[in-house]
Amino acid sequence: MASVFFMDQCDGFMSQWGRTKTGQMFETMKRTNSFLTTLRETPSEAKIVSHRLMLRASMIHQTTAGIYSWLPLGLRVLKKIEQIVREEQDKAGAQEVILPTVQPAELWRESGRYDAYGKEMLRIVDRHDREMLYGPTAEEVITDVFRHAITSYKELPQLLYQIHWKFRDEIRPRFGVMRGREFLMKDTYSFDVSQAAARESYQLMFRTYLKTFARLDLTAIPVKAPTGAIGGDLSHEFQVLAETGESEIFYDAQLDQLRQDPADVDIDQLIQIYAAADELHDPKTCPVPKDQLKTARGIEVGHIFYFGTKYSEPMKAHVSSQTGENVTVHMGSYGIGISRLVAAVIEAHHDDKGIIWPESVAPYKVGLVNVRSGDQVCDDLCDAIYQNLNNAGVEVLYDDRPERAGVKFADMDLIGLPWQIIVGPRGAPQQQVQLKKRRTGEVVTLAHEDAIQRMVG
Ligand code: 5CA
Predict the structure, then answer these.
(1) Distance 337 CA to ligand 1 centre (A)
(2) Is the Cβ atom of 179 under 6 angstroms away from ligand 1?
(3) Residue 161 host element (H or E)
(4) Which helix (H) or strand (E) holds 310?
(5) Helix (H, G, I), strand (E, B) or coil at 367
(6) Residues 6+ apart with CB under 8 A from 418
(7) Cβ contact 159:190 at 8 Å
(8) pLDDT digit string (tens) for the chain, length 457 residues
(9) Which mutation among 117, 119, 166, 185 tests ligand 1's pocket best, with the greatest number of atoms within 8 A of CB?
(10) Tell me, what's the pLDDT at 14?
(11) Residue nearest (by alpha carbon) to ligand 1 atom 11
(12) Does ligand 1 lie within 6 Å of residue 337's CB atom?
């Protein structure tokens, strides 16, 4: 990976920034100058492991009930997840937009949802006494954008998405960012000329979701779901299995085999396999034999809906068809809880020492541990490694603090970077380091150039 530095002469700076070939930002950081303030003790308010670890690793700070500030380490993960979700949406041909968070009540009156949405909607009055709201979702806003721009079937299908903050005044915000009141969502909206075409968009998103979750190292089971406040007649939730999950799901054991390799699975086939949220599961009508039926708890990380003309009809989103008639477009919407995913990844990837980030979303790839900061040989070798990794565009967090080795090791394990390069007084004179893989705990001793080489490759 080549890199271009904006600040060549930045030896004295706390961190360095660059840009990789793919345009993604990377950054390296020294602990002495970082905002990282890890906690040894377990915060008592946190009931599930992801919340505890996010607080202990200083990824988030609760500003008020269900509303969080994202701190530097947490934000890096949030951005990585966001970028993977974005790349998969772009590959599917969806185009990114940003819609307003503050929306006029008027549009929601048009769709008939303003009164129906209830107390979860945060309602605001502006200085002219106009009723506004902080968007819990954006079907109305996007339908309004669409109807002002698209007039012909020739311009369909359209897939538009945004990655933006939502607000739902949840009655019981809990488990940290897992169920917040303010949260980051990716929401895509599809517009098609017919029901058959809309089904294709639905299947495209279905497939895109399986690829997205696989890149996050998550196994997400697609489950038939009720449509709730969004409405419509076809819907799937994507559930990551975890004991702490809020939903109970029932599924055919066949799914366990198929989901191993989602890329090769025929989607129609996957949609046919029984998997249902508890609201939809009825043991009397369930087609799966008892010994083949599995039950598990899940975290809903995504939810997709086909709702036909529920919004386009009242909001008059029409196009001219091939035969010149005016037809109402068929729509779907497709959500992914980006901020919730940060917690879901931790629920799926941790041990009793802390987080174990999959490489794809790790805040840094490597943690560099100077076992004896202040020792000239150790400091020099660490500086050389830090600089080399930097030049190669490898994201590294360097623990250069004058702390005891035990504290640094515990912190690195807690933060959960995939790799640790450990520099100590025994190996440093021979330019030797230890390379530790966080997931397995496996440690090898090798020349520092070899360790760097392995991180770059
Ligand atoms: N308009 C549709 C699809 S874009 C919609 O809003 N769907 S949703 O209500 O199911 O939300 C989409 C995803 O956002 C959920 O699957 C979940 O992962 C995430 N989400 C919903 N509520 C919260 C919340 N309170 N905290 C964190 N994430 C949430």
Answers:
(1) 6
(2) yes
(3) strand 158-167
(4) none
(5) strand
(6) 356, 357, 358, 359, 362, 365, 366, 437, 438, 439
(7) yes
(8) 334 333 333 443 445 555 554 445 567 899 888 898 999 888 888 999 999 999 999 999 999 999 999 999 999 999 999 999 999 999 999 999 999 999 999 999 999 999 999 999 999 999 999 999 999 999 999 999 999 999 999 999 999 999 999 999 999 999 999 999 999 999 999 999 999 999 999 999 999 999 999 999 998 999 988 877 777 778 999 999 888 888 899 999 988 876 666 556 668 677 778 999 888 898 999 999 999 999 999 999 999 999 999 999 999 999 999 999 999 999 999 999 999 999 999 999 999 999 999 999 999 999 999 999 999 999 999 999 999 999 999 999 999 999 999 999 999 999 999 999 999 999 999 999 999 999 999 999 999 999 999 999 8
(9) 185
(10) 46
(11) 335
(12) yes
* 336 C-alpha to ligand 1 centroid (Å): 6
Does ligand 1 lie within 6 Å of residue 185's CB atom?
yes
300 lines ligand 1 (CB under 6 A): yes
Alpha carbon of 185 to ligand 1 centroid (Å): 7
The answer, yes or no, to whether any atom of ligand 1 lies below 6 A from the CB of 302, is yes
Q: Give the residue from 289, 287, 330 showing the smallest Cα distance to 308.
A: 330
Determine the distance separating the centroid of ligand 1 and the alpha carbon of 260, expressed in angstroms: 25
Give Cβ neighbours of residue 283 (< 8 Å, ≥ 6 apart): none
301 CB near ligand 1 (under 6 Å): yes
Rounded Cα–Cα distance for residues 32 and 423 (Å): 17
AA identity, residue 75: L
> Cα–Cα distance between 88 and 82 in angstroms, integer?
10
Polymer length in residues for the chain: 457
Query: Whose Cα sits closest to atom 7 in ligand 1?
Result: 335
CB 159 within 8 A of CB 94: yes
CB 275 within 8 A of CB 223: yes
- What pLDDT shows up at residue 265? 64
Amino acid making up residue 130? R
- Ligand 1 centroid–CA 420 distance in Å is 35
For residue 328, the CA-to-ligand 1 centroid distance in Å is 26
C-alpha closest to that of 148 among 319, 307, 334, 330: 319
Q: 124 C-alpha to center of ligand 1: Å?
A: 21
